[in-house]
Amino acid sequence: MFSATIDATAFRNALASVEVLVEECRIHVDSDGMRLRAADPALVALVDLTLDAEQFEQYEASEAVLGVNLERLSEILSVAETGDTVRMEFDERSRKLDVEVGTLSYTLGLLDPDSIRDEPDLPDLEPPAEVTLDGRHIDRGVKAAEMVSDHLRLAVDPDRETLVIAAEGDTDEVLVELGRQEVAALSPGPADSLYSLDYLTAINRVIPRGQTVTLELGEEFLAGFEFVVPEADQPVTYRVAPRLQRA
Amino acid sequence: MFSATIDATAFRNALASVEVLVEECRIHVDSDGMRLRAADPALVALVDLTLDAEQFEQYEASEAVLGVNLERLSEILSVAETGDTVRMEFDERSRKLDVEVGTLSYTLGLLDPDSIRDEPDLPDLEPPAEVTLDGRHIDRGVKAAEMVSDHLRLAVDPDRETLVIAAEGDTDEVLVELGRQEVAALSPGPADSLYSLDYLTAINRVIPRGQTVTLELGEEFLAGFEFVVPEADQPVTYRVAPRLQRA
Amino acid sequence: MFSATIDATAFRNALASVEVLVEECRIHVDSDGMRLRAADPALVALVDLTLDAEQFEQYEASEAVLGVNLERLSEILSVAETGDTVRMEFDERSRKLDVEVGTLSYTLGLLDPDSIRDEPDLPDLEPPAEVTLDGRHIDRGVKAAEMVSDHLRLAVDPDRETLVIAAEGDTDEVLVELGRQEVAALSPGPADSLYSLDYLTAINRVIPRGQTVTLELGEEFLAGFEFVVPEADQPVTYRVAPRLQRA
């Protein structure tokens, strides 16, 4: 059983966070809330997002797994205007999700959850270094790196106590170096890894500018990106596997 | 003979109303005003628009028919800024239309009216049901229907006294139901027909949001859509033929 | 040796003025300032832009020529926010240009100046006619001409003392005629030439609306377009060769 009502913009933002990595997703619901966790087809990046029951205007659920086409569900939500809520109810017999936004009722056919790629476990890692900074800096670093390369280096310079976002092309090089005065918090440690821009560009699309993002970094490390989903007031976490550094 | 001056935005909006169905159109002028009536190539939808002589700043015409490429005429008007007027004069010898917008003079070659598809008569029908509502609701219904199907059902539920906008896909269903509190006026009667979204999507593009539209509905009925063209202060009427309902 | 700091928006606008004609450009620097002069591949149009040393916040240079990919340099500048400055330093050993915008450091590989097309001399011509007018009028004339033709006529009517922007298509004609009350200044003289819209459309893209542009015109004349680059406070000059008039 599942029935819930939530601010449409909050829910749309939450879905968008997941949609940058996958098209289809299993939504786990139980009495505590809703959980979306998914990995991209190549198993390089993983997203994990929880919407606690308290974030909903109304929420009631027994344990269930819904297989959802995220693009379609987002499209339905796009008819919402600011302030609209979305009401969802799972019809167990038909295995369809009734979605109501304002005067619109949409009956969404669900996917067989077993047909959707299994989500890997989120490893519990102790990050050697951690940096909290405005999303704007990540945007700038990612966009600059895209000009010269298809991967990006995230490192912490232990002596200068700076976050280093760098990329190297055939003729050109990009370096964004952020010191303590440019970031909100920096706990230095050994950190230097290379990541594919494919994933960072996708994640950067939903990183809120003007809000803080926490980076968990290390050497050849499964990097972590965590920030609060706008309007949804709940954190989303991404993990991105490193690429091998050139020798 | 034909010479007229009118607010450029009003005229552009009037042309846009017709352009969603046809590229070329016969413009009939006489001392009362200007009339555009056209049907799409498949003869499924028809548009009818009159600009009374009083809507013009200056107007003088004897009976004539001008064959006009609407896209080209709209393009000329697109150089206008808010508040600009457009001055038109028909040169009978050259069979060209002189169009002046601000400092721009454009000599528009006209088409042979006989080369343009004949416009059918607008049947005078007594609609079984009529609903007047904000264009926003139609926009929402059409966009939601596009997600699941290529046709849309317009019906009036006589018991609940609601307007029903519905569409059915292979797995998903869409339903917008508007009661008396959501519409401006509703005169119920037997009404249930299916329409091709091709035409409703086209017409929806020029339906003004925040302004009322009157729907004339019935069973297997040539639906009517009527609203006032923004700035032009004149009504435009569309008729759309129904599709056969699935048995 | 070359090192300079300048407002990022001013520099971006300056580069944009040149980029509409060429992708790569030689930048000449010396103690007086920076000079960009380039001709399009077909040698029909030429651009000439100087940034005096005084326009920079910091400027120091001995004579040098830098071969620059303008698109790439503009892309780097696009990360700048309003008020940001750009710092450039030429590394003579590596033949690279270090570009710093905010926290971003970009090492730009330079091109061999000898690999870039030679820029022709800017002839010193005495224009028979000169018109100074708002860039908006040129925009309107160019856009209207694009509707009917691939070239545009610029002429001065000596009797009516008007600037004539005209174009002729197979069936349609466009005419923009601007009298003394519509332009800022007009010094009439024999002027009537045809120009390819390819070039005028490109130049029009950077002509500032609401600011004055000076046109130098004549018969079969290498037309001149001159205006002040927004924010950079320095003039840019274009020369466009006439096309042969139809007999």
UniProtKB/TrEMBL annotation, chains A, B, C:
Query: GO annotations under biological process?
Result: DNA replication; regulation of DNA replication
Spans through the membrane: none
Q: Does the keyword DNA-binding apply?
A: yes
Domain Proliferating cell nuclear antigen PCNA N-terminal as annotated: residue spans:
7-97
Give this protein's Gene Ontology molecular function annotations.
DNA binding; DNA polymerase processivity factor activity
Sorted keywords for this record are:
DNA replication, DNA-binding
Q: Does the keyword Disulfide bond apply?
A: no
Q: Which domain of life is it from?
A: Archaea
Q: Which Pfam families match?
A: PCNA_N
InterPro entries per record = DNA_clamp_sf, Pr_cel_nuc_antig, Pr_cel_nuc_antig_N
Q: Which family does it belong to?
A: Belongs to the PCNA family.
> Can you state the subunit structure given in the record?
Homotrimer. The subunits circularize to form a toroid; DNA passes through its center. Replication factor C (RFC) is required to load the toroid on the DNA.
Q: What does this protein do?
A: Sliding clamp subunit that acts as a moving platform for DNA processing. Responsible for tethering the catalytic subunit of DNA polymerase and other proteins to DNA during high-speed replication.
Please identify the protein, giving its name as recorded.
DNA polymerase sliding clamp
Look up and give the organism this protein is from. Halovenus salina
Q: Which gene encodes it?
A: pcn
